Amino acid sequence: MKCLVTGAAGFLGSHLCQTLLDKGHTVIGLDDLSGGYVENVPKGAQFVQASILDHDLLTSLFEKERFDYVYHLAAYAAEGLSHFIKRYNYNNNVIGSINLINCAVNTEVKCFVFTSSIAVYGEGRTPMVEDMTPMPTDSYGIAKYTVEQELKATKAMFGLDYIIFRPHNVYGERQNLGDPYRNVVGIFMNLAMQGKPLSIFGDGSQQRAFSYVGDIVGGIADAPNIPEARNRIFNIGADTPYSVNELAELCCEVMDVPQNVVHLDA
Questions:
Q1: In sequence order, what are the residues at sequence separation of 6 or more whose Cβ sits closer than 8 angstroms to the Cβ of residue 46?
Q2: Helix-strand-coil percent breakdown of the chain, rounded to 5?
Q3: DSSP 8-state code for residue 138
């Protein structure tokens, strides 16, 4: 199949590109490099540097390439920060997504795969299961849920098949170690390499199920080929929770630095 991957120069997107290539698909990766790096895009994928806000470019690209599958991973994902960058958040995470959905409808894409987020569930609602009514509490979660709803409406009106994934706490190679807002594994690694204490907000007893990127990209890549997966929502990631204190201890151990943790206000 001919596949478009948005966010292809980012962490999860670059891994997905490689997985699709390994499975024999033709891959075109699109990224504006606002958060990714061109060297992340695997050899064998055609790279297009562009923004999903460039509707005219997307229209031309879709008409030229006639994609079978679209994997939409491009987003600015910073839940807490999203309250303070509302216009930027909704432009990138909603309007950009709508541009892609329109192009997919107009060129008869077979399946649109969207990486949403567990942020749609809201705070303190565990265990999170797919049939819960989303109650997002930040602008990022609201944007993701908006696109989910748009995909359902588009399926009903135009017949565009979709699959929605809600990953959680993904880590692995090519994660951004310089991002202070996302990915606690990367943040801890960054601090350890600088010889600084690992900062934990609160007492550190809060738990997360950390998900290795290599364990989830295969399922995302294969999903459009599974008829039963079409037009459904899937949480994807690890099941076993660990406390942030446990994570900090492990990071110090494997990076061979002293156990140096500072607890800040929640």
A1: 27, 28, 29
A2: 40, 20, 40
A3: S
As a whole number of angstroms, the distance between CA 134 and CA 131 comes to: 9
Q: What is the DSSP letter of 223?
A: G
> For 138-178, what is each residue's pLDDT tens digit?
999 999 999 999 999 999 999 999 999 999 999 999 998 88
For 239, the 3-state DSSP assignment is: coil
pTM for the full model? Answer: 0.95
* 140 included as an active-site residue: yes
**3-class state of residue 67 by DSSP:** coil
What is the rounded CA–CA span in Å between residue 189 and residue 251? Answer: 7
Catalytic residue among 71, 121, 140, 162: 140
- E-assigned strands of the chain? 2-6, 26-31, 46-49, 69-72, 111-115, 162-167, 170-171, 198-201, 207-208, 211-212, 232-236, 242-243, 261-264
Residue matched to tokens 């990138």: 92
For the stretch 92-142, pLDDT in tens is 999 999 999 999 999 999 999 999 999 999 987 888 899 999 999 999 999
Neighbouring-strand partners of residue 137? none
For 232: left if phi > 0, alpha if psi spans -120 to 50, otherwise beta; the answer is beta
Tell me the three-class secondary structure of 90-123, residue by residue. HHHHHHHHHHHHHHHHHCCCCEEEEECCHHHHCC
Query: Partners of 261 in the beta sheet?
Result: 198
Report CA torsion sign: 254, 256, 257, 258.
Answer: positive
